[in-house]
């Protein structure tokens, strides 16, 4: 497989090929996504929760995200790698946004960054980063970094005002230069409307059919503890499998069943003699 390009990604919808995107936060996750043949990996700030244990995405820093992003880069060959710019790293000014985006490109090898929201300041950041030559993926609908201001982690586009706002923001984010747009937690019918008016690919999460889909790796693997969002489909039970593997190891250590002969090194007799004397 050849490396995914932006040109190819933007051509996929017209060719009826859905874009497959999944998050990754480390080397094994990136390797698995790569081996499974996804088109795009997202180093999501959802990593704040899935791998760093924060209770929301807002606390994660650029430095923390860069550690995750570099590990993902090392495991990614052909997939197009997008990095979330975390909350606080673009809010101050366009200059700050450009500096942050540049760090993700130069020190983590990001192919693009993802910027949440479609308000005036957000659009200005988006234009500035695009003008610096860095592709930007937009993110509208439920934007977790500003979920408090949206009234919590809830679906968007369900009232007249919210639906109108989504249409305005989608068009504005596209006009600001986004190469594609993630749309989160929106009724499928609204996504359909947006799809018909947008030229750039629309990648859904909890938004019904779109030009592509994205899911949080740990949600789809079944690693996440407790309840997940309504839109998550769990394709594995990796969390349970991990717990039972560790529990079995613990039990074998306690019963001295592990390590057995097959996991031991044999000593050379002369070395053994020497050790005994
Ligand atoms: O951080 C993340 O995982 C995301 C996806 C849910 C789109 O932004
Ligand atoms: Na995110």
UniProtKB/TrEMBL annotation:
The record's CDD domains line, in alphabetical order, gives: KPHMT-like
Annotated GO biological process: pantothenate biosynthetic process
Give GO MF terms, alphabetically: 3-methyl-2-oxobutanoate hydroxymethyltransferase activity; magnesium ion binding
Which pathway does it take part in? Cofactor biosynthesis; (R)-pantothenate biosynthesis; (R)-pantoate from 3-methyl-2-oxobutanoate: step 1/2
Could you tell me what reaction this enzyme catalyses? (6R)-5,10-methylene-5,6,7,8-tetrahydrofolate + 3-methyl-2-oxobutanoate + H2O = 2-dehydropantoate + (6S)-5,6,7,8-tetrahydrofolate
Residues that coordinate or bind 3-methyl-2-oxobutanoate: 45-46, 84, 114
A Pfam family reported for this protein in Swiss-Prot or TrEMBL: Pantoate_transf
InterPro entries this protein is in? Pantoate_hydroxy_MeTrfase (IPR003700), Pyrv/PenolPyrv_kinase-like_dom (IPR015813), Pyrv_kinase-like_dom_sf (IPR040442)
The cellular component terms of Gene Ontology attached to this UniProt record, alphabetical and capped at eight, are: cytoplasm
Q: What class of enzyme is it?
A: transferase
Active site (record annotation): 184
Can you tell me which residues bind Mg(2+)?
45, 84, 116
Give the subcellular location.
Cytoplasm
Function of this protein?
Answer: Catalyzes the reversible reaction in which hydroxymethyl group from 5,10-methylenetetrahydrofolate is transferred onto alpha-ketoisovalerate to form ketopantoate.
Self-association and partners: Homodecamer; pentamer of dimers.
List the PANTHER family.
Answer: 3-METHYL-2-OXOBUTANOATE HYDROXYMETHYLTRANSFERASE (PTHR20881:SF0)
Protein name (database record): 3-methyl-2-oxobutanoate hydroxymethyltransferase
Organism expressing this protein natively: Leucobacter tardus
Q: Which gene encodes it?
A: panB
